[in-house]
Amino acid sequence: MRLKISKKLMIVTVVLGCCLALTSVVADESSDAEAAKPVSSAADSLNQGLSQTAGEKGAGYNTKDIKLETAVMKVISYVLGLIGVILVALIVYAGFTWMTAAGNEEKVSKAKDIMIASAIGLFIILLSYGIASFIVYHLNQATIDKSNWPPGYPWL
Fold first, then answer.
1. pTM score > 0.70 for this model?
2. How would you class 27 by CB atoms within 10 Å of its CB: exposed for 0-12, middle for 13-18, buried for 19 or more?
3. Where are the domains of the chain?
4. Within a 10 A sphere around the Cβ of 97, how many other Cβ atoms?
5. HSE, side-chain direction, 13 A CA sphere, residue 41
6. 146, 156 in Cβ contact below 8 A?
7. What's the Cα-to-Cα distance from 55 to each of 28, 47, 125, rounded to whole Å?
8. Tens digit of pLDDT per residue, the chain (156 long)?
């Protein structure tokens, strides 16, 4: 019974953590003149609400200078980081299960299996991050136009 509750609790915690990690709320004060505009359609209503929330400058992000490889690596690092946190939590859970096994060989072997699988998963996560960053870096270097660079930069 306790194991089912702890699994449900862990799933709920992971889902809530994912939701909190992937959402960000950015609000800015808006003028009263924008709030007084008449609304003619649902799309206008949505645009007016977004304008009131974000204002003229929007969320304040500089979207013109964002490069594709930077965005790809951010997404990859966030996803792999989240999976890494889950695997570390599994290692802690396996350690707790092992410590509370009280000599029960079945629980000890289950905890060892979870710990070994989580450690292998962490190794795969670290390896996949290294491979992904290597590929993205070298694809970026291969697609850069180097014809207008000054001499003396062969390593770039």
1. no
2. exposed
3. 64-156
4. 19
5. 2
6. yes
7. 6, 11, 40
8. 565 667 776 676 766 665 555 543 333 333 444 444 554 566 666 666 666 666 666 666 666 667 777 888 889 889 999 999 999 999 999 999 999 998 899 999 999 999 999 999 999 999 999 998 888 888 877 777 666 666 666 555
